[in-house]
Amino acid sequence: MSDPSAGSPKREAPEPLEGPVVGTITGGTILWFVLFLVQLPFYGWFDEHGHLWWLWTCLAGAGLGLIGIWYVRKRDAALKQHAAGQAAVPGAAAPGTPAQDDQG
After folding, report:
1. Who's near 99: CB < 8 A, 6+ residues apart?
2. What was the pLDDT predicted at 104?
3. End-to-end C-alpha distance for the chain, whole angstroms
4. How many CB atoms lie under 10 A from the CB of residue 32?
5. pLDDT averaged over every residue in the chain
6. What is the pLDDT of residues 34-84, one digit of tens each?
7. Coil, strand or helix: which one is 1?
8. Is there a contact between 67 and 82 (Cβ–Cβ < 8 Å)?
9. Which of 9, 21, 58, 61 has the fewest beta carbons closer than 10 A?
10. What is the pTM of this model?
């Protein structure tokens, strides 16, 4: 059997897309919670027809979304802190090089 990737040329992977990650996760979390609240009055119907898992899926989506919001906010803060650290001191001595004194 031949290798299916043998005929396709290798290409470098594209850079990952960065976007409004915190807003996207927050919006999705709100949507899951609203879906849970909309379905809550129909608890009996879902239970009778064996679809109760729909309700709990929405609640789980909202709960996991809260964890996701916490995670992406921490990630965003860490990325901003790293970028600020890189740009904060452009004239700083590189590691391993002697620092210059201001004596003159």
Report:
1. 93
2. 46
3. 76
4. 20
5. 85
6. 999 999 999 999 999 999 999 999 999 999 999 999 999 999 999 999 989
7. coil
8. no
9. 9
10. 0.67
Please give the Cα distance from 56 to 20 (Å, whole number).
28
Q: Which residue has the higher pLDDT, 6 or 85?
A: 85
- Reading the block at residue 95, the tokens are 């590691």
Burial of residue 69 (CB within 10 Å: 0-12, 13-18, 19+) is: middle
The length of the chain in residues reads 104
Token pair listed for 71: 């995670």
What's the CA angle centered on 59, arms 57 and 63, to 5 degrees? 115
Asked if 66 and 29 touch (Cβ cutoff 8 Å), the reply is yes
CB 72 within 8 A of CB 22: yes
Six-digit token string for 16: 């990952």
